[in-house]
Design a protein that fits this description.
The chain is mostly helical. The protein has a domain of 33 residues. It has 2 helices and no strands. The radius of gyration is 15 Å and the shape is elongated. The N and C termini lie far apart (40 Å). 4% of the residues are buried.
């Protein structure tokens, strides 16, 4: 497997013009991480099937 998944690479490429030269975090992984954390949290909040 390469360094980044395809989705993160695509988001990083799209947000590259807004990346500051001294940026520490990759702008593509931040929204992806937030979206995944939200999805996982929403699944964890669902009530168990009876």
């Amino acid at each position: 497997m390469s360094g980044q998944p395809k989705l993160a690479s695509a988001i990083s490429a799209a947000l590259a013009p807004w990346r500051k030269p001294r940026a520490v975090h990759d702008p593509g992984t931040i929204p992806l991480d937030v979206a995944l954390a939200t999805a996982i949290a929403s699944v964890a909040q669902e009530p168990a099937a009876a």
